[in-house]
Every structure is written in C-alpha cells, then in structure tokens.
Target: DUF2892 domain-containing protein
Amino acid sequence: MNKNMGTTDKLIRIVVAIIISVLYFTGIISGTIGVIALVAGGIFLLTSVISICPLYSIFGLNTCKIPKK
Model:
C-alpha cells in the first residue's frame, strides 16, 4: 500500500490520540464511551505511525504532498 497521509494529518491524529488518552486516564471520560474513544485514539496513533489510512484508500483520498517532477 502507498502512504496516503501527510505530515499535518499525522500530527493532528497524534494530538487527538494524546488528548483522548489523557481524558480517559484522568477519568474525565469513562465507561463504554471512554473505551470506544480510547480504541479510536489507538487507531489514530497506529495509522499515524504507518502513514496509511484504510478509509482514505477506500474513498480515494490522499493528504501526502505529491513530489514535483
């Protein structure tokens, strides 16, 4: 698979994952909603690390900068 996430997109996802983690582990969000948010944060972090978003592939989106030839 080709990478389809740009730097800004990855940074936003990492920040959101950190915020979700802090909210969950401080008890601000809890229960089923907290677990779902924590899983979503984990997915955001994973997709940021590998620079591939499966949903972007399905919908044909790409936030990577295209190198000039």
